[in-house]
Amino acid sequence: MRDIIWEAPYCGEGNNCFRIGTDDQGNAYIAVAGAEGAYVTDTREALRTLIREIKAGKADHLL
């Protein structure tokens, strides 16, 4: 079992709440709040890049 340290949930409009976590191996995790057992994981840098790209509007076409 991984020892993931989860941040407080980030909630957008409505009930869209996500949590971001990290471990001591340099991995980052993102999950729906309340369902942290089903997460997506990658390096911290990859998650940082994903968040930057989303903030820049590069995923708006998916919404």
Question: What would you call the structural class?
Answer: alpha+beta
Radius of gyration: 12 Å
Write down the overall mean pLDDT: 88
Query: Which descriptor suits the 3D outline?
Result: globular
Helical fraction? 10-25%
Taking pLDDT < 50 over at least 5 consecutive residues as the criterion, the unreliable ranges are none
In DSSP terms (H or I, runs of 4 or more residues), the helix count works out at: 1
Tally of discrete structural domains: 1
Assess the beta-strand content as a share of residues: 25-35%
Using DSSP, what is the number of strands?
5
What kind of sheet is the major sheet? 5 strands, antiparallel
Report the end-to-end length measured between terminal Cα atoms: 33 Å
Detailed description of the structure:
The protein has 63 residues and is of the alpha+beta class. The protein has one domain. It is built from one helix and five strands, in the order βββββα. It has one helix spanning 44-55, and strands at 5-6, 10-11, 17-22, 27-32, 40-43. Strands 1, 2, 3, 4 and 5 form a five-stranded antiparallel sheet that branches. Strand 2 (10-11) and strand 3 (17-22) form a beta hairpin. It is globular and about 35 Å long. It starts with a strand and ends in an 8-residue tail after the last helix. This is DUF397 domain-containing protein.
Descriptors:
63 residues, DUF397 domain-containing protein, 1 helix, 32% strand, alpha+beta, five-stranded antiparallel beta sheet
